[in-house]
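Morning. Coffee machine broken again, so started the prediction first thing and wrote up yesterday's gels while waiting. Chain of 538 residues, entered below exactly as on the submission form.
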Amino acid sequence: MAEISQLTKNLISSYSFWQKSKIKKEGATIHVDEVASKVASFYERIRTIVDWKEEHLMQRAAIIRKLKRRFLDLELNNFSGGEIAEGLVLELIRGGYFPNDTIEESKIQDVQKIIDKYIFILKEGSENKKDKTRLQLYNRLLEIASCEIEETLTPSLKEMALIEYMFGLMKERIKVSEAVYQKNLLKEDQKDIQIYIAVQQSLFKFDDPIIGYNLLKYKYPTWENPSDLDLLEFAKNIYKISADIEKELEHPLAKKFYIICEKYDTAYLLIGDILAGENTEKIINEVSEPALLEGYIRISYASRLANLKTKITRAAVYSTSSIFITKILSLIILELLLAKIFSGSLHWNILIVDILIPTFLMAALVINVKPPSKKNINMVIVEIMKIFYQKEKTDTYEIRIPRKRGVVTRFILSLSYLAGTVISFGFLYWVFTYFGFPISSIIINIIFIALILFAGTVVQKRSQELTIEDNQGGFLVFVSDILFLPIAGLGRWMSNKWKRYNIVTTFLNVLIDMPFSVFVEFLERWRGFIKDKKDDLR
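Came back before lunch.
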């Protein structure tokens, strides 16, 4: 029988507490009308396609969208406040983001308290600031507020326990060379923060808002429940606090910490899966035996691998649909206008190609996704044994100074990248010209390909989340990287721009969201009125 490490024992205790917290508590829960919920859920499914993000981020994306709409009303009324939590929570439940009859009614007041806190910070901290700076803070704080609201409605006890577990072990394993500190590339007190950020990014693919929220709790323990004095202090220093968080998220060495954590995150994910099993008590009693633990690892690995394949397919379908609706639809409209201006008309066969290219390209990228090799599972088992049980010697991973490239090397690398860019875009231009596409269609189709290639690259990276072995690739991979990276880079740039200037999303937010939510609320009240009248007839 092997001795379980103290950090692992702490994780087991946290998971036991999480299992007990799932038991339904007594007390009134929030109920919404089923018919109104079906209508709202249908609309939200459409929004899911339009606003597609990683699956675990969709719930919070909806909170942000609905919270911004309500804060806009407050902004127009000079932040006069008001009870807006109830409407927000009811709308989220109707939309299917939270199960009906499961959230306690008391949560509404908790959410209102959070909203009041951020209103106070925005009011007290936004004075005498330029509009652009104030707007940036406004958006950032609303995103963080949405994280806190989501955490209040559905506490992530299990996820945070696993983050703390990996964070504790990685603090012991990741070492920073003295040269890094001497050159002032990283301060000693920043090391733990960078590890904390990297762990969240690698384990659960958290984005900047939720990592920022967790960093606020990490650096300011009273952030969630501040006293009046603390709240006033936060409001006065909110711009500095926000800038510090932003600085940590954009640290030049952040990528090096992430690469290490990303490589070994599979072991921690599988430990979490094992402890989250239905028969937790039985599992806890058995994992002290390495042979039994290995059996659980193999079962969890096979299950996660099967789920990963499903996720990849779903992500490919949704991301392609999202690109088509929000980007390609916009570009086809633009293409029709340009064709009308320059050539007088646009052939339908060109529009058909516009639609088929992204579909087939994404399909090809997904088909080429390869599962981890058979030896990967053995490497995962070895890694889990190292971290699960008490060991006298632990592995270490060193963060070193980035190798400085000389002028000649930088020139050759830049020239190679430029050559790859010219060849890639030149080949695409030649193909479309050969088949007689007008210049406007060529530009639009190159943008299509760039967007899909970037989305496909993200999906392919997601497919490697269980891979712990090093995969350097061969000569063909090296050549394809040179040729495809410039196009994927354009896709990434275009995708980020569309987040700001998404015509379809803006249209839905401004002209559909508010009237539709009012209609659904009216439908629920109307059905309640009819039900009351029926009861009177008894």
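The chain has a mean pLDDT of 81. Going to sketch it on the whiteboard this afternoon.
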